Amino acid sequence: MKEEKSPFFYSLQTYKVESYALVVGVYLLMVLGGYVKSIGAGLACPDWPLCYGSLIPSAEYWFIGNEKSLATFNWGLWSEFTHRLVALIVISLILHLFVIALKNKDEFPEVKLVIYLFVILVILQSVFGGLTVLYKLHPLIVTAHLGIGIFTYTITLINAFVIHNKLRQ
Ligand code: HEM
Q1: In this predicted model, what pLDDT tens digit does every residue of 38-50 receive, in sequence order?
Q2: pLDDT confidence of 27, banded at 50, 70, 90?
């Protein structure tokens, strides 16, 4: 007869898949952030948390000039907006991991510190991301954003390692 799997087993599986997705997502964010910075597009969305006053900037901002073609495509806006969008996905993933960890805190205590650190870091990182824009790329704020980003990625790797080990036991 097939063995029944417990709800905890499925929670751990979800936690594992989302933790691995997070490793990819945060890495992508760091690379995208570096791209935004290197093409000087940090203020391509001049406001925050909205972009040109709306959730998705209207069509006129996606092109430079009146002609709509690949040659006039506003890559700065694309990369900065995608950076924000991926950040939103990453934040949602971390909050979902937090909910799973809380629900299973007795069976899965290993992750407690990691998950609290995660939530604090990702909130801090988003605030610093916003301040980067509001303070027009002040060097100290951009540096803090990079520093917290590196720390967040380290925690992402530790978290993936913890769940990987837990499932091997
Ligand atoms: C978990 C979330 C995030 C991570 C890990 C992250 C990571 C990074 C990294 C590594 C850079 C490159 C910094 C450098 O090369 O000095 C960057 C740049 C940037 N990020 Fe984020 N970021 C996150 C969220 C956000 C959010 C929510 C915003 C909101 C506006 C934002 C806005 C920016 C901007 C404007 C830049 C370019 C700075 C410049 O041009 O000097 N980031 N990000």
Answers
A1: 999 999 999 999 9
A2: very high
Q: Is the pLDDT of residue 4 over 80?
A: no
CA of 142 to the centre of ligand 1 (A): 8
Closest-CA residue, ligand 1 atom 32, reads 129
Ligand 1 geometric centre to CA of 33 (Å): 5
pLDDT at 142 over 80: yes
What distance in Å separates the CA atoms of residue 107 and residue 162, rounded to the nearest whole number?
14
List the domain boundaries for the chain: 29-168
Structure-token match 């091997």, residue found: 168
Residues with CB under 6 A from ligand 1: 26, 29-30, 33-34, 36-37, 42, 48, 80, 83-84, 87, 90, 122, 125-126, 129-130, 132-133, 137, 142, 145-146, 149, 152
CA pair distance 9, 108, nearest whole angstrom: 11
What predicted TM-score, i.e. pTM, was given to this entire model?
Answer: 0.92
List the residue whose alpha carbon is closest to atom 16 of ligand 1: 146
- The CB density around residue 7, as the number of other CB atoms within 10 Å, is 9
**62-78 residue pLDDT tens:** 999 888 888 999 999 99
> What secondary structure, in 3-state letters, does 49-70 show?
CCECCECCCCHHHHECCCCCCH
